[in-house]
Amino acid sequence: MVVVTPFWASIETDMPIELWRRLLPPRVTLAAGLELLIRPYHAYAIQKNSLETVRGAAAAMLERGADRVYLFNYMDSQTAMERAEDTKAVLNECGKLSTLAGKTRRHVATYTDTWGPDEASAALLPKSVGAGNWFALRIATGPKVSRAEVRLGCEGPAPAELRLNGVKCQ
User: Fold this and answer.
1) What is the dihedral of CA 130, 132, 138, 144, to 10 degrees?
2) What are the residue ranges in the chain where pLDDT is below 70?
3) In the chain, at which end, N or C, are there fewer CB atoms within 10 A of the end residue's CB?
4) Considering only CA atoms, which of 136, 134, 139, 126 is closest in space to residue 41?
5) Are 99 and 93 in contact (CB under 8 A)?
6) How far apart are CA 38 and CA 45, in angstroms?
7) Where do the domains of the chain lie?
8) CA 50 from chain center: how many Å?
9) Spacing of C-alpha 136 from chain mean position
10) Distance between CA 17 and CA 57 in Å, rounded?
11) How far apart are CA 87 and CA 71, in angstroms?
12) Which residues neighbour 148 within 8 Å (Cβ) at sequence distance 6 or greater?
C-alpha cells in the first residue's frame, strides 16, 4: 500500500480531493493534510485549529474521498492545539465519518497559503461586493446536517442569502 500525504495549509476550501481520488489507483491511501494553523486570508491574525474546526475539516475531507487525515504540526511541544486536552478527542474521532457523527463541528473559509511557481495566490476573502452584485462562497461541510448556524462578518449594509445543502435559510 502506498500512502499519499499531500500537504495543504487550507482546511477544505481548495484541496482537490475528488480529483486526486479519481486519479489514484484504489490501492493508494489518500491522506489529506490538515495544518494546525487556520485563517481566512493572509493578513488575518494566525490562529490554531480547535477541536470543532478539526472535526469540520476532517468530515469534509473524508466525505469528499480522503481515506485519512494527516495532522501537520499537531504533536510537538511548540506546535499543538490551544487546548491540549482536545488532542485525544482529535485522534479518536477524526479518522472516520462514523466517529464524527453527531459531534459539533465548525467549518471555516480558509485559503491555500502555499503555492507553486507560476501559481497565483487564491484567497477568497476578504471580498468587496458592490451594490447589485453577488458573491458565492462554497464551504465543504461533509455529510448533510439538519441544523447549522452561519456566522458572516461584513462591513456596511450586507443583505445576504444563505443556503444550507441548497435550501435557502431564513
Assistant:
1) 140
2) 1-14, 114-115, 121-122, 156-160, 163-165
3) C
4) 126
5) yes
6) 9
7) 1-170
8) 12
9) 17
10) 12
11) 11
12) 141, 164
